[in-house]
Amino acid sequence: MNTTMNSRAVTTTYGLHAYYTLYYSLLTPVIFGIYLYGYIIIFLLGFIGNISSLLTFSRKILRKVSTSIFFLSLSVTDTIYLLTCVYDFTQMGLKIPDPSSTNKYQRLCQFRNFIAYSAINCSAWTLFSISADRWIRTRYPTKVGRICTPRNAAVTLLSILVFSMVMNSHYLTPMFGAFVPGLTILCAPNNVHRVYPYYDFYTKYWQIIRALISIIIPAILMVLALGDMFVNIYKRRRSLLGQRTNEGLTVHSIRNTLTMNNIMDTTKIKQSSFIQKQMFILMLSSIIVFLVTTLPMATYYIIVYQPAVSLDRSITNVVLMLCLFTFTLNINYAINFYIHCLTSKLFRKEFISIMFRKHATRINTISVKM
């Protein structure tokens, strides 16, 4: 009996290595280079950046601001997504075959895709929530205290999480898993279930639905919010400057008396303008990076499943395209922290002050205005 079991184990191991050797031989050095060196860079930048964001926004004083709650959640979802990429790095970058049994691989495949795509959707709508939060603060400043609260932010994030999990729950069904039963290399709708409606739904409609819900719709809403913010900030600034000019002309006789008040008002206007400008630049850069890194992957997934589209669907080319577009997608979840630091003086100052435990009183002042 032991001899039989050992024999089966040897055969299984030999078959596994033979299968992976054949599969790896079909791929190019560029693919392995991206999965190895590219992913190492992504992990280093991503985990360090996301942890830095977590340290920044998890501060008690910053958690009192709804915007910070959204940024904190964004760091968490980005980190979770990057963790799901470790499997691809191990299998393709380090070339370590997955020795799991068919059943284990099936469950792992389902779980990884469910977590990854739920995190992608959460990240997109959290980014929109940040834009909406800033839009409300600009559009309805008198209602900020009632609407933009940490509690409402938590409720919004919980709603996004539940929606994302329900939306991607089909990944946990038996219809999704190993494309070819017994082969632990490709996650897709099960090839055995081609006759079922799910296969047609996934290949013809799901990629379009996912692209719309997780990328295009939140991106459009973010652009609209950003545009309206820009218009409102511009109008308000002109109104304030015009009001001050008129007051200066009609009350010329008491100018000296109000000099100090005017200086204080000017300082407040400049400070408010600085904060709004920094948040505008931060949001604009985040939206641009989001679109540039996520749209190519979504577009390719839509095209590759359309038989009418003339496309090289050889294993080598498909894996190469998926490798390139997945790497581009991963960039979005690794560089948010660096975008914030490079584009926003406000965020950069806050991070430096927190890291070096300096200017605690200034943090308190600015965080209230965020």
TrEMBL record:
It holds the Pfam family 7tm_1. Residues 49-340 form the G-protein coupled receptors family 1 profile domain. It comes from the Eukaryota. Keywords: G-protein coupled receptor, Membrane, Receptor, Transducer, Transmembrane, Transmembrane helix. The chain crosses the membrane at residues 34-57, 69-94, 114-132, 153-172, 208-234, 280-303, 315-339. It is a multi-pass membrane protein. InterPro entries: GPCR_Rhodpsn, GPCR_Rhodpsn_7TM. It is found in: Membrane. One of its GO terms (cellular component) is plasma membrane. Its main location: membrane. GO terms for molecular function: G protein-coupled receptor activity. PANTHER family: G-PROTEIN COUPLED RECEPTOR, G-PROTEIN COUPLED RECEPTORS FAMILY 1 PROFILE DOMAIN-CONTAINING PROTEIN. This is G-protein coupled receptors family 1 profile domain-containing protein. It comes from Didymodactylos carnosus.
